[in-house]
């Protein structure tokens, strides 16, 4: 992950500052996907006055993570110097857009993938053949589709133009507390005839959502109405990190069309037709399945509003499983080096109407891209550096330094769900099957609509269909007002 000393200090500060707020996450910030320093830092490069100086702004890493990249690039490009600045993530968008509006700011701007639509007018696409070179003349779009995982071509390429270069692709995965699983194994072994299938499932971890439901029944412990040991943090939004992403993953696994192809209408609340012509409601089914884990009337009930944030509850041994991104693993290790946990692939939904057919895996991704700003007077030099990042191993050096997952295609992918669950590093292969959905140009507002939609249904303020309908209406209004 490459979190430096400053980030470790920040993590401790966040923990102390948020202990009084049980819904605050371990990495509670405006963008919760990466923990970073609050105090801006700069690389220590002091360029000669005759060099072209590229200023790079980014909010997610220490400059040391780029030391090898900077050295290698400047060895072959002595006329270009890199001024790498780490900005506070909490105000990154405001500071960046204010600077760009004032005709200032960076030459290279590192931003989340979800910002691309909103800030497309502030960045310039890659010059054609910049990645392959004039000799080979491979169109940029073809180069990207051959090198990077599919989600990059679907999101970082706009109108046939490459908007930016990905640094990594992070995906949702299932974290489980091995100490709790071992305790449950001991409990089962105390029976006269231990259930071998349950023991195998606890040893391997859940490969699909049916497995998760099975584990809920044997892990959850209650004292009358109180849950004393939760199996998994699902079913709410206020105290579950990335609840909107988890729900989105479930809907996409269940083959829900979340918005219309023209990005004008939210459709996740509507029935869809199967290939047989039969009507069904995949969005509603996924929504109600998600909610069932925090519904006292359902067999899946294992979570409620009394729990602290899912990340904290996992750290404190109150919940056996959570769904979160790769970055969290390093954060947990910093808080408690003795925490015995394992990360496995995101569970999958079996095909509708056929519980025997292996589903095609659907994973959920987030990532950052390096873009070149329209304000820059050094756009050719900037794209020269980004070309180096892609073609000469810059991204691989970065991912080696940070421990993040490479955005490149790989050949070795698990053949089935059992192999997925048994893999020691799901973040290596999950980017190959990762997807997302278009949340409008106002991602923060779209996420809030979904969080409120979950809360409306989870608290009983609305039934599930009314909550979905209101969420779809608000998202449709947002889409049409920003496109």
From TrEMBL:
Top-level taxon: Bacteria
Classification via InterPro entries: Bact_solute-bd_prot1, SBP
SUPFAM superfamilies: Periplasmic binding protein-like II
Pfam families in the record: SBP_bac_1 (PF01547)
Signal sequence region: none
Record's protein name: Multiple sugar transport system substrate-binding protein
Native organism: Candidatus Berkelbacteria bacterium Licking1014_85
């Amino acid at each position: 992950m490459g979190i430096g000393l400053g980030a470790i200090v920040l993590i401790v500060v966040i923990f102390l500052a948020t202990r009084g707020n049980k819904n605050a996450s371990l990495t509670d910030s405006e963008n919760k996907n990466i923990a970073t320093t609050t105090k801006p830092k700069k690389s220590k490069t002091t360029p000669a006055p005759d060099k072209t100086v590229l200023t790079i702004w980014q909010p997610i890493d220490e400059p040391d993570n780029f030391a090898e990249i900077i050295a290698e690039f400047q060895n072959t490009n002595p006329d270009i110097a890199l001024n790498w600045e780490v900005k506070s993530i909490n105000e990154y968008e405001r500071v960046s857009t204010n600077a760009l509006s004032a005709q200032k700011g960076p030459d290279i701007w590192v931003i989340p993938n979800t910002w691309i639509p909103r800030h497309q007018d502030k960045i310039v696409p890659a010059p054609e053949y910049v990645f392959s070179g004039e000799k080979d003349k491979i169109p940029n779009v073809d180069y990207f589709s051959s090198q990077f995982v599919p989600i990059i071509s679907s999101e970082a390429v706009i109108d046939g133009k490459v908007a930016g270069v990905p640094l990594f692709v992070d995906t949702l995965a299932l974290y489980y507390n091995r100490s709790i699983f071992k305790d449950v194994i001991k409990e089962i072994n105390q029976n006269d005839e231990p259930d071998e299938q349950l023991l195998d499932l606890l040893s391997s971890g859940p490969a699909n959502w049916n497995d998760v439901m099975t584990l809920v029944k044997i892990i959850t412990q209650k004292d009358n109405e109180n849950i004393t040991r939760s199996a998994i943090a699902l079913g709410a939004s206020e105290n579950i990190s990335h609840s909107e992403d988890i729900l989105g993953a479930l809907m996409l696994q269940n083959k829900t069309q979340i918005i219309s192809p023209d990005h004008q209408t939210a459709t996740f609340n509507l029935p869809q037709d199967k290939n047989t012509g039969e009507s069904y409601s995949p969005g509603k089914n996924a929504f109600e399945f998600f909610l069932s884990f925090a519904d006292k009337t359902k067999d899946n009930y294992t979570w409620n509003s009394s729990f602290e944030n899912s990340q904290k509850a996992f750290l404190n041994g109150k919940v056996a499983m959570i769904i979160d991104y790769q970055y969290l693993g390093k954060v947990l290790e910093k808080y408690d080096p003795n925490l015995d946990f394992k990360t496995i692939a995101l569970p999958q939904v079996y095909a509708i109407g056929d519980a025997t057919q292996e589903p095609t895996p659907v994973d959920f991704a987030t990532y950052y891209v390096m873009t070149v700003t329209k304000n820059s007077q050094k756009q050719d030099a900037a794209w020269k550096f980004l070309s180096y990042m892609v073609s000469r191993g810059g991204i691989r050096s970065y991912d080696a330094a940070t421990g993040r997952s490479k955005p490149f295609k790989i050949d070795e992918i698990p053949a089935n769900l059992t192999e997925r669950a048994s893999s020691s590093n799901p973040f290596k292969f999950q980017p190959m099957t990762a997807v997302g959905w278009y949340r409008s140009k106002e991602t923060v507002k779209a996420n809030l609509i979904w969080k409120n939609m979950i809360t409306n249904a989870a608290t009983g303020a609305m039934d599930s269909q009314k909550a979905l309908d209101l969420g779809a209406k608000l998202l449709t209004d947002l889409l049409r007002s920003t496109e």
